[in-house]
Amino acid sequence: MSILGGFIGLIVFGSILLALAIPIAIIWLIVEVIRGGTGRRDRYDPAADALRYRFARGEITQVEFEAGMRALGYEKR
User: Looking at the structure, do residues 2 and 28 belong to the same domain, yes or no?
Assistant: First the structure.
C-alpha cells in the first residue's frame, strides 16, 4: 500500500502546484498586457541613448536621428 500512498501524494502535490501556477500565470499575463508587452521601451538601450545624446548636442540632424531610431526598432509616436 506504500506505493499507492506515494502515488496519491504525488497527485496531491501536483494538484497543489497546478492550483498555484494558474492564478500566478493569469496575474503575470494581466500585468504584461497593462505594461504593453515586453517592449523595448522599458529597457535600457545604450544605442538609443547614444543617438539621443548626439541629437541633443547637434551632431546629427532630426532626419538622421529618426532614421537611427527606426533602425533600432523604435516607432515614431
Answer: yes
Separation CA 58–CA 16 (nearest Å): 60
Judge if 26 and 51 occupy the same domain.
no
Q: Model-level pTM?
A: 0.44
Q: 3 and 29: one domain?
A: yes
C-alpha grid cell, residue 24: 500566478
Task: Output the tens digit of pLDDT for each of the chain's 77 residues.
Answer: 577 778 888 899 999 999 999 999 999 999 888 877 655 555 678 999 999 999 999 999 999 999 999 999 887 65
